[in-house]
Amino acid sequence: LAKTTQPISMDSYEGQEVNITCSHNNIATNDYITWYQQFPSQGPRFIIQGYKTKVTNEVASLFIPADRKSSTLSLPRVSLSDTAVYYCLVGANPRGSTLGRLYFGRGTQLTVWP
Amino acid sequence: SAVISQKPSRDICQRGTSLTIQCQVDSQVTMMFWYRQQPGQSLTLIATANQGSEATYESGFVIDKFPISRPNLTFSTLTVSNMSPEDSSIYLCSFSRVSYNEQFFGPGTRLTVL
């Protein structure tokens, strides 16, 4: 099971770019890297997913180096409403088939200040 | 996109009783999942709810304690049986469609056991 490590917390100011890095040294060949966002009293929300290099959508960018042992979620020009917990997940299952199981780590609490 | 709802949104229960949580999706989905999120903690996958077959439980969770039903492709229930204060938690359901790593979460059920 691929374990992920990410900072417990980060602070930023409105308008800045925020980069949250996640380490996943034991990532398997078939694993994808997925990021979720969770606001208080809500369920997590899918942000972005990638396998290698760079993925960009309307919300964020995901940078994955060639060795895939880490990934960086980049949030451009954050606002107060981006204050949330961000989870990095790597799809893996000891039995060799993900079958949709998601294993959440501790996440990173991002706080955006005015 | 599909809407997912849970009932009840919160409940306060007595030790030794059971509570059934309902999860409804407004369109047919293949995979549904149940998670637990204890106060201040990350999410832990309880089980995968399979339509037409027994649920698949993760390590540390058993059917006698958390029986799950999945009678059709839009609905699932999770029962928390013989509750103790340690079961106080937020219980979330989710579903996935094409990409197993992209799951859509319900708003959660906040359970307090006295």
Explain what the structure shows.
The complex is a heterodimer of chains A (114) and B (114). Chain A has 114 residues and is mainly β. Helix content of chain A is 0%, strand content 44%. Chain A has no helices and 9 strands. Chain A has strands spanning 9-13, 18-23, 33-38, 45-50, 53-56, 61-64, 70-75, 84-90, 108-113. In chain A, the strands form 2 sheets. In chain A, strands 1-9-8-3-4 form a 5-stranded mixed β-sheet, with no helix packed on it. Chain A has a 4-stranded antiparallel β-sheet with strand order 2-7-6-5, with no helix packed on it. Chain A is globular and about 40 Å long. The termini of chain A are far apart. Residues 92-98 of chain A have low confidence and may be disordered. With 114 residues, chain B is mainly beta. In chain B, the strands form 2 sheets. In chain B, strands 2, 4, 5, 6, 9, 10 and 11 form a 7-stranded mixed β-sheet that branches. A 4-stranded antiparallel β-sheet of chain B has the order 1-3-8-7, with no helix packed on it. In chain B, strand 4 (31-37) and strand 5 form a beta hairpin. The A-B interface holds A 32, 34, 41-46, 49, 87, 89, 91, 98-107 and B 31, 33, 42-45, 48, 56, 58, 92, 94, 96, 99-108.
Per-chain topology:
The complex is a heterodimer of chains A (114) and B (114).
Chain A: E1 9-13, E2 18-23, E3 33-38, E4 45-50, E5 53-56, E6 61-64, E7 70-75, E8 84-90, E9 108-113
Parallel strand pairs in A: 1-9
Antiparallel strand pairs in A: 2-7, 3-4, 3-8, 5-6, 6-7, 8-9
Chain B: E1 4-7, E2 10-13, E3 19-25, E4 31-37, E5 43-49, E6 56-57, E7 68-72, E8 75-80, E9 89-96, E10 103-105, E11 109-113
Parallel strand pairs in B: 2-11
Antiparallel strand pairs in B: 1-3, 3-8, 4-5, 4-9, 5-6, 7-8, 9-10, 9-11
List keywords for this structure.
heterodimer; A: mainly beta; five-stranded mixed β-sheet; four-stranded antiparallel β-sheet; 9 strands; 0% helix; globular; B: 114 residues; mainly beta; seven-stranded mixed β-sheet
